[in-house]
Amino acid sequence: MSEDFELDTDDLTRRMDGAISALRTEFASLRTGRGSGSMLEPIQVEAYGTMTPINQLGTVNVPEPRLVTINIWDKAMVGKVEKAIRESGLGINPQLNGTIIMLPIPELNEERRRELTKVAGQYAEHARVAIRNLRRDGMDQIKKAKNDGLSEDDQKFWESEVQDLTNKYVKQVDDLLETKQAEIMQV
């Protein structure tokens, strides 16, 4: 029966890709010295009775590296969006120009840069833990198949497949972290 055992490596790969994708999203929300539309993604505004992301209330642009602009479509929402940005903890002071909100990105000081690299490291560690948990799930499936009669050679083969997959994704996390930390520390 278990001679036919085949671990669903596609499922493990898909789930590990999800961990990498979540890490990229978290990294995008970390503000470096440059402006990025993605830094506004976590901010929600109370609009028309529901909490709405800013990018659904206006057009977000980055006309220059140290400036983000939001062209709000509904004039009545400008004040609410401005207030949400002020209260978001991004440390940015919005400036109004009609229906356009300008967000000048201030320089990061050395201390803030170091804090952000630590936060990036924490995000990366969460991603590594998620990947290791997926590895454990795969190993548990193999152990169950071993108890059901999977040969020792097949067990070793599948365990090495899962470990190789895990190593590949942990290396991706490390590479992403290294890139993000270099970006944060760049003056």
From TrEMBL:
Pfam family membership, one: RRF
SUPFAM superfamilies, per database record: Ribosome recycling factor, RRF
InterPro entries: Ribosome_recyc_fac, Ribosome_recyc_fac_dom, RRF_sf
Gene3D superfamilies: 3.30.1360.40, Ribosome-recycling factor
Start and end residues of each Ribosome recycling factor domain: 23-185
Tree of life domain: Bacteria
Compartments it resides in: Cytoplasm
Keywords: Cytoplasm, Protein biosynthesis
NCBIfam families associated with the record: frr
Function: Responsible for the release of ribosomes from messenger RNA at the termination of protein biosynthesis. May increase the efficiency of translation by recycling ribosomes from one round of translation to another.
Family note: Belongs to the RRF family.
UniProt name for this protein: Ribosome-recycling factor
Species of the source: Marivivens donghaensis
Gene name of the record: frr
